[in-house]
Amino acid sequence: MSRITHGPVALTIAGSDSGGGAGIQADLKTFAALGVHGTSAIACLTAQNPSRVLAVETCSPGILRQQIEAVFEELLPGAVKTGMLFSEENVRVVAGFFKGRHAATRRPCPPLVVDPVMVSTSGVILLKPAAIKILKEKLLPLATLATPNRYEAEILTGRKLASVEGLRTAAREIHARFGCAALVKGGHLKNVFPETKRGRREGGREAVDIFFDGRTELLLSAPFIKGVRTHGTGCTYSAAIAGYLARGCNLPQAVKRAKEFVTQAIAGSYRIRKHFALNPLFH
Length: 283
Description:
- This protein has helices at about 25-35, 60-75, 90-105, 130-140, 150-155, 165-180, 235-245, 250-265, and strands at about 10-15, 35-50, 55-60, 80, 110-115, 145, 180-185, 195, 200, 205-210, 215-225, 270, 275.
- By secondary structure, the protein is α/β, with parallel strands linked by helices.
């Protein structure tokens, strides 16, 4: 006889990736790998593959809000993450929903992880300039955690980031400015190893991230996996954080475990035609 258990639920509010490597598709695969029931609200449709984004079409604010409401009505998530929202209207919908729910219920909303997806790897704008302003004013102040990469953190702080110390400063500034914890991802930094008495440490480059929540600061590092060019690592990383939060981890624990998760997913990447795909089941 089977035994029915109660499983955790997480919600992703993001764009759909027709190539299957990022966005909603990556988030749902990550939730499933963590034993979390994944729900979704699609903010926009993209025509994309691992090389480029051909087109983006936003969903209407009305249907985006109804998707979120439908999930909360019957499948109350233990954590929520946002990814590509694209338009000012959609950022307003998400911020308005969470602000309104808190006011109506007088209870804390589920932890909200905001991945401020702004530009694709190929340079396509994924968050309109007017939407960035609303993201700063309305959504980030509601977030539990923001997970910008180096370039997104530069936009949020208005400063160039070229070192681990710069990441640390940016994480603290984002926390001070918006009131949320920050995970600033420095995956594109070069030569991040600290100097030693014998010179620069050997062993190659590392992917270094800085987490700061006002009390705890973490320096999270992992070796780059040589010969692998991945797509969707930021989506997978933030989805893993939301997944671990839904499973009951506190925020620093969720961030540390998600770093290990995405590192292992990269290490387990497999080829799809001439591209690489993350393997979230390789953990």
